[in-house]
Amino acid sequence: MDTLILDIGGDVGALVVHTGPQHCEREIEISPGAGSDTPRSHNVVHARHNRERTAYTAVFPSVPAGDYTVWHPDGAPHATVTVRGGRVSELRLVP
Description:
single chain; mainly beta; Immunoglobulin-like; 54% strand
């Protein structure tokens, strides 16, 4: 079973991006706001196992509250997600 430590509270939350196995070991990039010229953060999609199933996720364990663009590997905006302080926000990129 996998374990993660999140550093959330106050104006800082976490973001979990759910993908499919086809994205395993690929990077997911996010940036604050909608501008393509803002600095990006990235994390790798890992297979995370528990007793019932395997989930493929990229976890951003400490993200300042706000709206973020999730970028497609081709460089285009893929989705927007709101991170709230003290909470874990989730985005599903596959059904």
